[in-house]
Amino acid sequence: MNVADLRDQLAAIQTEAEASFKSAKTVDELRSARSQVVGKSGSLGKLMGTIKDYAPQERGEVGKALNAANQAIQQLVDQHTQRIEQADLAADASQTAAFDPTLPGKRPPLGSVHPVTAVQWQVEAIFERLGFTVEAGPEMESDYYNFEALNIPAMHPARDMQDTFWLKNGLLLRTHTSPVQVRAMEKFGAPLRCIVPGRCFRYETIDASHENTFHQCEGLMIDRNVSIANLIAVMRLLLREVFERDVKVRLRPGYFPFVEPGFELDMSCLICGGDGCATCKKSGWLEILPCGMVHPNVLKFGGIDPHEYTGFAFGLGLTRLAMMKYGIRDIRVMNQGDLRSIVHPSRLNGPTVVERDRC
Ligand code: FA5
Fold first, then answer.
1. Which ligand 1 atom lies nearest to the CA of residue 290?
2. 287 Cα–ligand 1 center, Å
3. Interatomic CA distance for residues 10 and 3, integer angstroms
4. In this structure, is residue 108 part of a structural domain?
5. Which ligand 1 atom minimizes the distance to the CA of 150?
6. 285 and 332 part of one domain
7. Model's pTM, two decimal places?
8. What angle do CA 208, 242, 337 make, to 5 degrees?
9. Mean pLDDT score of the chain, rounded to an integer?
10. Which of 47, 113, 238, 327 has a CA that sits 20 to 30 A from residue 287's CA?
């Protein structure tokens, strides 16, 4: 083929290539159309191998013509690749526009909750029905609120009852939820009804029923003429509602400097049915609900006149209550993140208050 015929043929190949590239709807189709032109056995590819058949003085001109044709084909390929990609993007966008927000969504699987949280929700619901508010206080507490304002002065032997984690900043990790008693009295005055679920910390030897980090729920009711009868009625109601039946309890005198008189309310161990096991230290009883009538000195610390008001307080062992409710023999599983101990949502009574102010 002479050089003039070659030029004609290259022009025809370009026209044909343009038509086939135009009809390609996908990048794959375009790729295969391109290989039919520039591939080894494609229309242009075959001509590329013919340079050597020309006379040496013609080869420069032939080479230039072939390269120009090759570049023109590549430009067409780029142009059509862009066309196809833009069409794809437009199609995606129109699909997004067709998204129907009224379609029902996919329901995510329900999570489970920690047994202490489950029982805390239940206790909160019970007390809210009785007109109590749910309060919170700081876990990092001062000596004043944790001890002093609770009628436990420095050097008082009762401080030994609660081994304390002292912090370098002079504060401590609260050993009980009782400090919120005085905080609540200061904030709300009398009459007052509140509970305070929360974490407590004690530097003590861990066993089946003792942890160094555990939950209590403080309860406080102050009004005119509040008596031990009110205290006992509320304690009984609380336990009956949590366990959905009467549970065997015993009330015995207990000493806490912030109540007078003070009581220890123990419940018959539900793990062994009262026979004695490691959880109840073979006694058949578990200390769960110490309580008493608020000491006049504590009312005074809270700014409440003890001649006008009386009150009861209790310090429910929430972690132990959860153990009894859900049949957990060893308190140590509570802080270990053991998923076998979480409570299925079907056994819950439902959350009530989640966010609350601090006293
Ligand atoms: C107190 O902490 C008092 N503040 C309770 C109180 C409040 C009495 C108001 C009177 C009026 P006690 O140290 O006994 O009391 O703890 C209360 C409950 O917390 C115990 O009955 C027990 O159920 C639980 N508890 C105490 N120490 C631990 C521990 N190390 N691990 C798990 N639970 C504990």
1. 8
2. 8
3. 10
4. no
5. 4
6. yes
7. 0.70
8. 40
9. 90
10. 113
